[in-house]
Structures are given as C-alpha cells and as structure tokens.
C-alpha cells in the first residue's frame, strides 16, 4: 500500500493568498507562496507520503452542461478595482510559474486535465487508488463524500483531520459537536445527498428543494431504504422556480 498526499492546489493557494493580503503585491505573493510551500512541507512531514500529487483547475465541463455554473463569480470579478485586477493578475502569473516548476523540475504528479477541475482529478485519483492510503489536503467540504477507510482529509487552516470514524484536532483528539455535544462524525453518503438537495450557492447551483430544513433532509435520508412517508412526501413535493417552471 502506497501513501499519497493529494493537494487541492488552488484551494490551498487561495487560502494562503487571503492570509497574505496585506503589504505590496510582491510581498503578498512571496508570503503566499512561502505559506503554501511551508504547508505542503508540514503535511509531508506529518504523513510521510510515498508520493505527492497536485491537482489543479483547468476549465470545467460543467459550464457546457449548465450555463449558469459559477457565473456569479464573473459578476464579482467584474467589480474589482484596477489595483485588485493587477494584484490578481500577478498572483495568477506566479501560480502558473509554480505549476511549470512542479511539472518540469520535480517528480511530483500534476493532474491538469483540460475542462476538468481539481475536484474531478482528486475524485478520480481516489477511485483508481482505492487500495492505497490517500490524504487530501483541502478545506473544501465537497470532498467529504470521498471519505472511506483509506481516504482522509486534512484541513491545515481549520487544523482538523476528517476520517470515516470521526473528526480529530491537531492533538489527535475527537472534535465535539457544539450542538449535539457528541463527537463529530461524517457520513459520506449523507454528505452527497445533502449537497444534491441543498445545491451550492457559491457555484450558482440551485437547490433541488429550496428552503427545506436540514432536519427534514436528515429524516428523509434516514428513510431512504424503507421509502416510507418521509421519503415519498419529500420526493413528491412540487415548487415553482423564478422562471415560473414547476419542478
């Protein structure tokens, strides 16, 4: 069994970029890259992987499948000031140079498939290396659905490790849920079901059942095998969207 450290590269860089937002442009870029490399070094020291994998975004097939996908982000970018545009351009150039460095000067694997996001590459890597140990370095909850006995997620910013058996802090102690007072446990199947129902406002994906409460989603999920009242009542519910189309 090999151990792979899988870096959700842009997610990690974006968080480092946020931390390094003060100072002039070159100082910010330098500090962000320093933080990025230091985070990877720390993760490699912690998990002692046999190989490191960097997954990056390179367009998305989703935009062809669903036109509104992430269009809200274009609106946000359009509101940037000239200085913000300049800073973003410099960051992107530095990031592209970093990827070229990884590809040409190191022995790491870079997943860079046209029309695919880092999420796609990471999911495929985990599926094709199911008998190996996979450590995903990311703060993105979308990866919860990939958790299994051989796959864990480490969020260095939140200082949490997510496993199929529980969530642990940096002292390897179980994280206690503040509401339930019980140890936090992630159910990958539920996380996928929840995402499908809730949608993703950050990516401009509408909910399949708007304004439904999470408690109701959980009840329906728990009734999915029996397909009793909770399931049928939920699945037969109808609503009308902003274009006056009934679903």
Please write out the topology.
Blueprint: E1 3-8, H1 9-19, H2 25-47, E2 51-55, H3 62-65, H4 71-78, H5 82-105, E3 109-111, H6 118-128, E4 133-137, E5 151-155, E6 160-163, E7 166-169, H7 188-198, H8 214-222, H9 229-235
Parallel strand pairs: 1-2, 1-4, 2-3, 4-5
Antiparallel strand pairs: 5-6, 6-7
Written description of the protein model:
By secondary structure, the chain is α/β, with parallel strands linked by helices. It is built from nine helices and seven strands. Strand 5 and strand 6 form a beta hairpin. It starts with a strand and ends in a 12-residue tail after the last helix. It is globular, with a radius of gyration of 20 Å. Strands 3-2-1-4-5-6-7 form a seven-stranded mixed β-sheet, sandwiched between helices. Helix 1 packs across helix 2 and helix 7 crosses helix 8.
Say how many strands there are.
Answer: 7
**Helix percentage:** 40-55%
The strand order across the widest sheet is 3-2-1-4-5-6-7
Specify Rg, calculated over alpha carbons.
20 Å
Beta percentage is: 5-15%
Q: Which secondary-structure class do the elements indicate?
A: alpha/beta
Report the principal-axis shape: globular
The number of helical segments is 9
Low-pLDDT segments: none
What are the key terms here?
single chain, 247 residues, alpha/beta, seven-stranded mixed beta sheet, 9 helices, 13% strand
Short description:
The protein has 247 residues and is an alpha/beta fold.
């Amino acid at each position: 069994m090999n151990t792979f450290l899988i870096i959700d590269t842009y997610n990690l860089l974006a968080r480092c970029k946020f931390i390094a937002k003060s100072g002039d442009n070159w100082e910010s870029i330098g500090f962000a890259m320093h933080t990025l490399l230091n985070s990877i070094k720390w993760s490699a020291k912690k998990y002692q992987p046999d190989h490191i994998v960097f997954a990056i975004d390179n367009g998305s097939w989703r935009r062809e499948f669903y036109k509104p996908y992430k269009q809200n982000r274009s609106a946000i970018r359009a509101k940037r000031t000239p200085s913000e545009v300049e800073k973003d351009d410099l960051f992107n150039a530095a990031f592209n140079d970093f990827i070229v460095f990884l590809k040409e000067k190191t022995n790491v694997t870079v997943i860079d498939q046209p029309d695919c996001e880092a999420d796609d590459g990471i999911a495929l890597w985990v599926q094709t290396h199911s008998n190996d140990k996979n450590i995903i370095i990311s703060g993105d909850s979308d990866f919860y659905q990939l958790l299994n006995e051989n796959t864990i997620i480490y969020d260095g910013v939140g200082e949490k490790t997510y496993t199929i058996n529980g969530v642990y802090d940096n002292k390897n102690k179980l994280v206690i849920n503040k509401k339930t007072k019980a140890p936090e446990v992630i159910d990958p199947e539920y996380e996928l079901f929840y995402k499908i129902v809730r949608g993703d406002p950050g990516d401009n994906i509408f909910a399949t059942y708007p304004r439904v409460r999470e408690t109701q989603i959980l009840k329906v999920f728990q009734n999915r095998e029996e397909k009793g009242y909770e399931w049928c009542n939920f699945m037969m519910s109808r609503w009308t969207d902003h274009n006056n189309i009934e679903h």
